[in-house]
User: Fold this.
Amino acid sequence: MDVEKARALICAMEEKSISAAAEKLGYTPSGISRMMAALEEEVGFHLLIRRKEGVSATAECRQMLPVIRELIRCDDECLQMAARIRGMEVGTVTIGSAYSEYCRWLAAGIKKFHQLYPGIQIELSSGYSSELVEKVKNHKLDIAVVSHRDEIDEWIPLCQDPVVAWIPADHPLADEKGIPVEAFAKESYIDSNPEYVTDNALILEKCGITPNIQIQSKDSHASWQMVEAGLGIGLNNYMNSKDRTGDVRILPLIPEQTIEIGITYNREMTLAGRIFMEQLKKDMEAICLSDSGAGIRPSVPAYPG
Assistant:
């Protein structure tokens, strides 16, 4: 299978458009269409479903995606290794983060990395932990800062982040020192991002709690506003809560519940990714040996008040 055709196929799927893929890759739409037709003739079945609203992968194509992505990864590896042999570091490192708190830390590492390897590009993206973990496993990302998931293979822990309750300021529980996890089975619960396997859902499941879900939101900011309006109580990790403002109390859970935040990476990442990961590990070792690292590597502050 021709690697450029494979790249065009993946791009068309991600962009959901032949025209968008052509623009991104520098081809004409008819050129991309010919490449897809040649690929389909080669494999013996259709790879894309073409509709007015865009293109999507066929069931047969989805079965082949892991192999196609591995083909592209190997090609990137060959190109990057050849460039390294010539003494010219090139490539792209893809990084995801589920926590904006870590962007400043990552930015400091990227700045240092660019000084050493100016030819390597960095692509940053955000998302939810389960989503980013899946992207790492499927070679869509090299590295991600996420909360721990059982399916993770490679893991570097960063901190333990408490899970906290969001309580309306005028709620009867607002003056308590902590909220029993059992309260989420009785009180009206505002569920955030129900389409994902979230830390909230994992904590409640671990505690054997079936929450009394009254409102569902696809956005934690919207959930916070629903809590502030007195429509129910919420749940989130403290790192995503400490900088919010409004008439909401942030209280610890009883018993205390924490999630582990860390770095996951694909052990078969491209050469550029491995170079970045090596530099990141060195920086982390230096931070661990230095008291001055506190402002670079985020820690979880104490509860307010």
Remarks:
- The chain has a mean pLDDT of 86.
- Residues 59-85 form the longest helix (27 residues).
- The domain at 1-65 is CATH 1.10.10.10 (Arc Repressor Mutant, subunit A).
- The two ends are 62 Å apart (CA to CA).
